[in-house]
């Protein structure tokens, strides 16, 4: 499994995460050219070499109007904290969406950019007690943050890890001065974004994790914890601006992990008053909600009634949603839950060309085995369109691989 591990022991800022990811790319110059050609108004992006505690890494520099700006997402009505002595326009979430819609990006990357920005807007909305539509960002800080977020999303798309794991996040301690005044560390928006994410303070005074860094982590990271057993292929260091008595950087490590054990939740309930159609409909809604597996088993119920055992496998983070869906779409009055260990093979989906069109193939490997299987939906679609047997299109797919 292609795994990306992010070491956030010195926090996470948008520019640090982006710089670390940039170091993983074989051709970082082409990525920089692509970023500078996006059309972010007045913005130029530069990669610089930086050294922290003897470690060489990359500093990701964003200049707005030839001035390097700090990552800053001021909300409406606050004075300019950059000390420029002049007033800047403020951008709404609608303005951000309009701006990003004109970038030359793949649709998936564009959606990731807006998803990360919406997380920040939601955090600001919660902290300031106003609707997301009323949140306005300081223009200069917005352009800097948009560049960081867009670069991070583009790089994540190019790296394409199967899993992203991050360490607990060091947030710093003390207080930080911003447009709203003096705030505790982590700043309120950052603290809101890091809910349900392991974080810690420490002796370092200052803000180590910014709202932009927290939002990028929240959007992309699959899980937080210790570094897994992995065969590391590339290492990137994204350097912060400040100097401390320890290396101020985010370290990104890209490599391979074996198919592994993970924990899932098994939810089950018994029903004896649902039709087959109703149970099938409920299963579809559970799959749409993120269930890993939904299956049924005939069961004998009270009073000798025939019934059905409905079982759902899901990830820990999807448990609450699965419970809600089970109560909504089944007639059960109670749900049982157990924790289960699951061993999985690494897997990926590739495409094989045939004379009748592309066919997807699922590959799986690990624990000393390797197996492949063509996607049934593709095989059946082509077989129906061409009036041939499944075996025939399967044979053509195998020939396309040779």
Description:
The chain has 402 residues and is of the alpha+beta class. It is built from 11 helices and 23 strands. The strands form 8 sheets. The chain has a 5-stranded mixed beta sheet. Strands 18-19-17-20 form a 4-stranded antiparallel beta sheet, with helices on one face. β21 (346-354) and β22 (357-366) form a beta hairpin. α1 crosses α7 (211-220). The longest helix has 22 residues, at 107-128. 32% of the residues are buried.
Task: Summarize this structure as a short list of keywords or feature phrases.
402 residues; alpha+beta; 5-stranded mixed β-sheet; 4-stranded antiparallel β-sheet; globular
Concise overview:
By secondary structure, this protein is an alpha+beta fold. The protein has helices spanning 14-22, 28-36, 93-101, 107-128, 139-159, 188-193, 211-220, 276-288, 319-329, 376-386, 390-400, and strands at 2-7, 43-52, 55-64, 67-68, 90-92, 136-138, 163-166, 169-170, 172-173, 175-178, 181-184, 199-200, 206-207, 223-224, 231-239, 249-256, 261-271, 293-300, 306-314, 336-343, 346-354, 357-366, 369-374.
């Amino acid at each position: 499994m292609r795994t990306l591990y992010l070491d956030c022991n010195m926090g996470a800022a948008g520019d640090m995460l982006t710089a670390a990811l940039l170091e993983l790319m074989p051709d970082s110059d082409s990525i920089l050219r692509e970023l500078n050609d996006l059309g972010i108004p007045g913005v130029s992006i530069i990669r610089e070499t930086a050294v922290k505690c003897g470690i060489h890494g990359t500093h990701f520099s964003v200049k707005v109007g030839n001035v390097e700006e700090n990552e800053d997402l001021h909300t409406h009505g606050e004075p300019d904290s950059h000390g420029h002595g002049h007033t800047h326009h403020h951008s709404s979430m609608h303005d951000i969406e309009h701006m990003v819609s004109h970038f030359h990006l793949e649709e998936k990357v564009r959606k990731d950019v807006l998803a990360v920005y919406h997380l920040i807007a939601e955090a600001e909305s919660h902290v300031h007690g106003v609707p997301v539509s009323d949140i306005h960002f300081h223009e200069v800080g917005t352009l800097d943050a948009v560049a960081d977020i867009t670069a991070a999303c583009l790089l994540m798309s190019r790296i394409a890890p199967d899993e992203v794991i991050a360490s607990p996040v060091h947030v710093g301690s003390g207080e930080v001065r911003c447009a709203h005044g003096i705030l505790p560390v982590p700043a309120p928006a950052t603290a809101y974004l890091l809910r349900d994410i392991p974080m810690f303070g420490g002796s370092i005074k200052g803000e180590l994790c910014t709202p932009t860094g927290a939002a990028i982590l929240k959007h992309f990271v699959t899980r937080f914890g210790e570094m897994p057993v992995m065969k590391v292929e590339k290492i990137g260091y994204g350097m912060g601006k400040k100097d401390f008595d320890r290396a101020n950087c985010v370290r990104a490590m890209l490599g391979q992990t074996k198919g592994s054990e993970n924990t899932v939740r098994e939810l089950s309930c018994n029903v004896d008053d649902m039709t087959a159609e109703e149970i099938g409909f409920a299963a579809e809604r559970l799959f749409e909600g993120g269930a890993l597996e939904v299956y049924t088993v005939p069961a004998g119920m009270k009073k000798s009634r025939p019934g059905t055992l409905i079982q759902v496998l899901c990830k820990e983070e999807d448990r609450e949603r699965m419970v809600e869906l089970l109560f909504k779409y089944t007639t059960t009055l109670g749900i049982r839950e157990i924790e289960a260990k699951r061993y999985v093979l690494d897997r990926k989906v590739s495409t094989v060309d045939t004379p009748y069109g592309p066919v997807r193939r699922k590959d799986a490997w690990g624990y000393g085995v390797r197996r492949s299987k063509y996607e049934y939906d593709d095989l059946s679609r082509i077989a129906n369109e061409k009036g041939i047997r499944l075996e025939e299109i399967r044979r053509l797919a195998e020939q396309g691989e040779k």
